[in-house]
Give the backbone structure.
Amino acid sequence: MKQSMKKLVCILLAAALLLTLAACSGASEEAPENTAASASLDAGKSLTTDNIKIAYVAADLGTENNQKWDQGCQEALSGYGDRVTYTSWDCKSDASTQNQIIEELIAQEYDGIFLHAVDGSAVAASVKKAEEAGVNVVTINLNVDTAYTAHIGAPNYDSGVTMGRKLAEMMGGKGGMVMIGPPVAFAEVIQTDDAIIDTLEAEYPDITMYEEVSGDWSTESGNQIMRDFITKYGADKINCVWCCNDGMALGALQALEAAGMKDVIVTGTDGSDAALESIANGGMTLTMLTESVVNAKIGCCILMEAIATGVRGCDLAETPQLMLEMTAVTAENVSTYYHP
Amino acid sequence: MKKLLRKCVPFGIILLMMLIFGATTEYFFTMRNLNSLLRDAAILGIIGVGITFVMLGGEIDLSVGSTMGLVMMVEARLLNSFHLTAAVSVALGLVVGVACGLLNSLLVNRMKIDSFIATLANQMLLRGLVYLCSFHDAKGSIVTATLRNRVFMKLGAPIGEVYPCAIVWIVLVAVSYFVLKKTKFGVYTYACGASENAARLSGINTKNMRRIFFAAAGFCAAISGTFMLAWQGATTLDGGSGYEFNALVTMVVGGAFIGGVTDTIGTAAGSIFMILIVNGLYKYGIPSEYQYIVQGVLIIGLSAFSAVRAYSAARRAQKQAYAADLAACGKEAAAK
């Protein structure tokens, strides 16, 4: 029931975004310098009779989130019938490769790209070229520095504030905390850690934030960094560890268990299956869940509607953004989300 | 004539591959695709030109990818943070590239470190400098900045139908081929690669030669980085990484094509070949993991073909020498 409600809210949000798109396009029809936008509106494709080619360009298909987005795209597009061709592309976390792939998709006259950008600035030029060539682009998670069809993202700073308060509550308002942050290149876009630090500093003076160290998303790096924290600050000083993804949180958990520190609060982000299983088995304490499959489905629906209406993102004043909420999953509600 | 024909073999193979891709896929022979192909081959091929000199001179350079990344970051900072003009930024970027090359030669010449180790260490050192030079926000976090200098960005946009990097690449290949084949410097380069001791004893200043090889590699990496930056409009911390190995592979493939010691035309063919495989496989929608496998298999196949050809040539030469010896012995016996 709760999930159905969430899906309904998501669909309503998607509808609101489409209205925004339509409004933006409408505005451009009135503006004389944007006549191309109104012209392109007439050139939209029929979702029932025309052949449509959609690509999912993943930053790294090896990660669970990317795989779930891939799955969401496949599920969403299968509903449009055989006329929709879907392919997924892996960029191995390399911005140059992603640029090459986007240019390749333009050359192959794709209609839409669902993109998880490697770097919001480094692929901006390619996204702009795609939109100018009539290829609609919808991004997920990481915004790109140009105007395009739509962006689906989680409100990083706001969810960080919520998480900061939740952590403080679990710690009883006092104690020591360490953080395993995102790789340095992602510091700009992942602001959850900044939000947690700001919230704890402003609202919880009895909580000491010892240090934040950047990991590389992997379980190994989470394990290594946590071992360093234990050596540096001592087993009795650390009450809580926050990690910016579940993989590193699971690594930190391994290090804590090896050191016999069973009472430390371990939190992650993403809501991966492994993290949910760990919470269900009494390992991790909390994860911030993003419904990746649903998010990708919403993204694909927006993409298909944009293709149908002929909206060109490059004609919009700014990229319409759909921000999806994250859900805190703990031992209390894990049964709702984890189905082994 | 035979030499000329041998030079044409790699381009014949490339043409054949293009015809196959063109006949079996829908979007291969489009102007946009061919331009993209040429641009990507040029960015890789320009580094290949520098690497060819280093390798022919008997050394190796594993730092060109990091040099490229550093030049990209320095130029981006000069353009965005210091608001220098495009010409000045590019000039300073090229100076940085040459300086990185000279640092390699210093380590090899003065400190007697093997070029493999020296350039591997420099690869890490220069990557660290990329981090240090990168853009930071008010909180000190590393950020990626989009370039706004329109004059500089023109370097990454096609002039008419052709990207400027392709024109520069063709000029560089032609000039470097002339230098290798028609000048004393070219002869010295091959001599250094064949035997450094013999070259030194023959009066060649091998240290100076090495300095020029590494500086050329740094210079070419800087040119490549400049075009890459202009095309992408931004750079990341790992900008240029992986290009050192790709450039080495282009040379190996070039050598395999020609069937022996390569030159800059062989390396150019290797660059086109490498990019062509990726471009062609994209058209078939083959996932990247299989692309790596196909690339690996093709490189092994080419190298094996080259080795077999070299072995056959050696055997043939041996047989001819033996036959000549026999004939000489026969004549001697008849005379007696």
Summary: DSSP finds twelve helices and twelve strands in chain A.
